[in-house]
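EI: anyone free to look at a 149-residue chain?
SC: sure, send it
EI:
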Amino acid sequence: MPIRKEIRMKKEISISLIIIIIVVIADILTSNITDKKISDMNNDLDNMREKIVFVKNLNEEDIEKNNNSTYNELILDVKNIKRKWEDNNNILSYYIEHNELEKVGTEISTLYNYSESNNFEQALDSISRLEFILDHISKKYDFELNNFF
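SC: here you go
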């Protein structure tokens, strides 16, 4: 009888270890995916910040000489960020809280509206808020012991 208990106990321990290993591997994979997506978004936002600062410092003469191409590029970049986020959202929504993702989507829409209405100061503020939210998501879903408890 004690041998059966010992065998059953070993099976239970083995199954528990396999489950723990699977959970750890899945968490590492999702953490890496999240970090990559957020890093890409932060790079795009940094580029956007540079363009907004450039456009903001242009005077009317420069804008006319430029045929609004810089401004049009800026709007196109915001649209690309919005499209990219929608693609990322489809992937991240499998394992990240939806309200966290909605905050990013809302802020991207706000950024688009500010950029389109030439409210560049508010657009820069919106980029800062986006970076803060993305950083929060990244830290919240990092593979760390304190995130498990």
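EI: The chain has a mean pLDDT of 86.
SC: 👍
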